[in-house]
Amino acid sequence: MIPRRRFLQAVSFTTGAVAAGAVALPAASALPAAAATAAREPKGTITDLGPASVASPLGNAEFVGDVLYLGSRGLAPNVVGAWDLSQDKVTAHHEIPTGVGIWAMCKVGTDVYVGTHTRSDLYKIDTLTGVTTLLAQYPDPYIWTMASSPDGKVFMGTSQPGRVLEYDPATGATRDLGQPAPGEAYVRSIQADDTHVYAGVGTNAHLIAIDRRTGEKRELLPAEVADRDWVSSMSVSGTHIAGGMNSLAELLVLPKADPAAYRVVKATAPGEKYIVSVLIHDGWVYFAGRPSGTFYRHHLASGAYEVLGVPFPEAATVRLLEHGGRIYGIQDLGVFVYDPSTGATDYVSHVQKGFRAAPEEPMSVHCDGERVYVGGKGGCDIHDLATREVTRLTIAGEPKTIMNVGDTTYLGVYTQAALYSHHAGDPAAKLLFRTGQSQDRPKDLVHDRLTGLIVMSTQPEPGHQNGALDVYDPRTGRLDTYRPVVERQTVFSLTARLGTVYLGTSTQEGLGAPPVTTTARLAAFDLRDRRVRWEVEPVPGAKAVTSLKHTALALYGITDTGVLFEFDPLRREVTRTLKVCDRGGDLVLSGRYAYTSDEDAVYEIDLVRLTSRPLVAGLASDWFGGGSRVNIDPSGRALYALKGRDLIRIAI
Question: Where is the signal peptide (predicted)?
Answer without folding.
Answer: 1-35
